[in-house]
Specification:
With 445 residues, the chain is of the alpha/beta class. The protein has three domains: 95 residues, no CATH class; 140 residues, no CATH class; 198 residues, Dna Topoisomerase Vi A Subunit, Chain: A, domain 2 (3-Layer(aba) Sandwich), CATH 3.40.1360. Strand 10, helix 14 and strand 11 form a beta-alpha-beta unit. The longest helix has 27 residues. The termini are far apart. About 3% of the residues have low confidence.
């Protein structure tokens, strides 16, 4: 048995050295050598006698103070000499000692390896251009987009953190494919496909929060602060939180089932009242018929309400007024921002009936993006309505657009929207439908 092991064995047999040895280990981990002072408060007589015997001092007060060097030098005068203080402490505590700094470096290296492994995994499986790969890279470089959250899970359970990151990454890959086809996923179905658990990505869950962070990186968006913003964010990537959230406000559109024209929507059209269509309502619907030769679609609820209100004024003293009571053949839809699943179900039904669609949205990065994707999916029978560069100047606001927002304008395909996007990038200010009410009204007359 070595001197160091024998010395440690002696200390273990003497309870009076316990607190002293813990304090010595703490100093060693801080500095990696025999330096620093040790202070022990409220010591017992046995502790003072034991430590004083090593150091060669008599302690009278209950609070005692001595240097690490004094203790080590005292040991070198005992029967255990020569001793190595580090090896004595390792034998006493049964563990290898390293400094706090060294431990932090090792932990940091392990954590970096954890993230780098994911980079390599998604690079090999999905390619260096995939959103999953780019998201992991951004987490590492910027320490954002869910980085701290994933680190917390990593510290709790590395294996579970690995499963979590892979599930979210796979989810991003799937959503990229969904975007190409303009498809949508009910949240529960999407979660079950990615993890086997339909509630895996529910709002407030750890996986749900990490997915939101990943989507915010993808869409260059701020983290949602409430349920409404959370729903809107998910909808931008084709995830529908529920069938009720997926809805369109409508006026003047009849829906057909295998049994004929749906009586409820016939009644709304006859009474000239607006109504809501959800995904649940579309079950069994096989066709649609507009009241007029065109279907007008607006992004904003207030704009929809204004136009419908004007359309409903049937009794006016002056027949030449600018109201729409004369136009009994109006069909108007409101998508309320991002195109939901119900809108993407309705549009083919309308186009198949032989009616073209005129779409108008806010003239900002998100509004232009919605219009452009709609045109790309359905072609020239989608007419971009009141979103030209001239309309932009007419409806411009005082709302500035961030750099992240401007990036969204780089990949616009529609020729008219490309011109508008250039104006938006130059002025860096958003324009809104609410500033074009009279123009929109005049068009649909």
């Amino acid at each position: 048995m070595s001197n160091n092991t024998e010395c440690a064995k002696y200390f273990k047999s003497q309870k009076a050295y316990q607190r002293c040895l813990k304090a010595l280990r703490k100093k060693w981990k801080s500095f990696g050598k025999v330096v620093g002072r040790i202070t022990l408060k409220d010591t017992t007589e046995d502790e003072r006698r034991a430590i004083g015997g090593i150091i060669g001092r008599i302690f009278y007060d209950e609070d005692i103070c001595f240097s690490f060097a004094e203790f080590e030098q005292g040991l070198q005068r005992t029967r255990f000499a020569p001793v190595d203080m580090k090896e004595v402490l390792e034998a006493y505590f049964g563990e290898k000692l390293s400094t706090n700094q060294r431990e932090k470096e090792e932990q940091e290296n392990e954590k970096n390896a954890f993230f780098n492994d994911f980079c390599e995994y998604f690079r090999k499986s999905t390619g260096s251009g995939s959103m999953a790969f780019l998201w992991i890279q951004a987490m590492i470089s910027d320490k954002k987009y869910g980085y701290q959250q994933l680190v917390r899970e990593y510290k709790k359970d590395q294996q579970q953190a690995k499963i979590l990151a892979k599930n979210v990454g796979k989810g991003l890959v799937q959503l990229e494919c969904t975007e190409e086809t303009c498809g949508e996923w009910p949240l529960a179905v999407f979660a079950a496909k990615m993890s086997g658990n339909p509630h895996y990505f529910d709002r407030g869950t750890v996986p749900g929060q990490l997915l939101v962070n990943a989507i915010c990186y993808w869409r260059k968006a701020e983290l949602p602060v409430n349920a409404h913003q959370w729903r809107e964010l998910l909808l931008t990537v084709g995830i529908v939180p529920d069938n009720v959230s997926s809805m369109v406000h409508a006026y003047g559109l009849r829906l057909k089932t295998k049994d004929g024209w749906h009586p409820a929507y016939d009644a709304f059209c006859r009474l000239k009242e607006p109504y809501v269509i959800t995904m649940e309502n579309l079950r069994g619907v096989t066709g649609a018929r507009a009241e007029g030769e065109r279907v007008y679609v607006v992004e904003n609820e207030m704009v929809f309400s204004y136009l419908v209100e004007q359309a409903g004024k049937e009794k006016q003293e002056r027949l030449g007024s600018s109201n729409l009571y004369q136009n009994e053949k109006l069909t108007l839809l409101c998508t309320s921002g991002q195109l939901r699943a119900v809108a993407l179900e309705l549009i083919p039904l309308i186009l198949n009936s032989g009616t073209d669609i005129y779409y108008s949205g806010d003239i900002d990065p998100d509004g232009i993006g919605i219009a452009d994707r709609l045109w790309q999916k359905f072609g020239d029978r989608i007419h971009i309505w009141r979103m030209s560069s001239t309309d932009y100047v007419t409806s411009i606001s005082k709302e500035c657009i961030s750099n992240n927002g401007l990036v969204k304008l780089e990949n616009v395909v529609n020729p008219l929207l490309q011109q508008t996007a250039e104006c938006v990038k130059e002025k860096r200010i958003a324009a809104y439908q609410e500033n074009l009410l009279e123009e929109l009204l005049g068009d649909i007359q």
